Amino acid sequence: MNETTKADSPPAVVLLSGGLDSMVSAALAREAGFAVHALTIDYGQRHIRELESARKIARLLGVSRHVELPLDLRRFGGSALTDDIDVPKEGVGDDIPVTYVPARNLVFLALTTAFAESVHSRDIFIGVNALDYSGYPDCRPEFIASFAETARLGTKQGVEGKPFSIHAPLQHMSKADIARECYRLDLDPSWSWSCYDPTENGTACGACDSCRLRRKGFDDAGLVDTTAYAPEAPDLRE
């Protein structure tokens, strides 16, 4: 990434998980001319490897500030990502899966809004997607629109007539579209991490919902995913 942020660039806060979608979202914010402030939340997720990716992405994109915030949602549990529950590997189903973390994006967007208000930013970027995803309710357009109104009503900045814009640039993209954007923005897919259940040797499992959606996206786009997957990862073409 050889772009530079101008001194007078307006600030935007990006929720940077370390996953593919958040990486592309951050790069799009940068491309739009914002000075990117990134928020990464360490919520006790079993795929802690994504935090390393978030740090790498923040460094390579040259963000203005990167805050890593601890919030141990393992104290609540209730999800395969924060509790002793097996991550499903059978394929993406129609129901909300056990990898759903209760109210995660609601909590995360509230924290992102607090960060945005503290740096006098009116622009928040989140990499949610409502097409090729696992069916999480907090990825839908109606949730994003509702949260924007909540933020307007519940913040000093909002009631003073400077409401937040919640940018979800990937909202209506397929995973193939997101893979294409990744390459268009000159990003290396391997900088990001999507797997919910990494193997003991550090590769992505290739079988969880997140891996399946990601792999299919790159396959559909005819592009190479440079992420290292486990040799035993299922062949999605079968």
Explain this structure to me?
The protein has 238 residues and is of the alpha/beta class. Helix content is 34%, strand content 11%. It contains 7 helices and 5 strands. Helix 1 packs across helix 6 (175-184) and helix 6 (175-184) crosses helix 7 (209-221). The termini are far apart.
Which regions contain 5 or more consecutive residues with pLDDT less than 50?
none
Strand order of the largest sheet: 3-2-1-4-5
Quote the beta fraction.
5-15%
Radius of gyration, in angstroms, nearest whole number: 17 Å
This entry's quaternary arrangement is: single chain
Mean pLDDT: 92
Helix and strand composition category: alpha/beta
Number of helices: 7
Largest sheet: 5 strands, parallel
**Terminal-residue CA separation:** 37 Å
3D shape = globular
* DSSP helix fraction: 25-40%
Task: Name the features.
238 residues, 34% helix, alpha/beta
Summarize the structure.
By secondary structure, the chain is α/β, with parallel strands linked by helices. It has helices at 20-31, 49-61, 104-118, 141-154, 156-159, 175-184, 209-221; strands spanning 11-15, 35-42, 65-70, 123-125, 165-167. Helix 2 (49-61) links the parallel strand 2 (35-42) and strand 3.
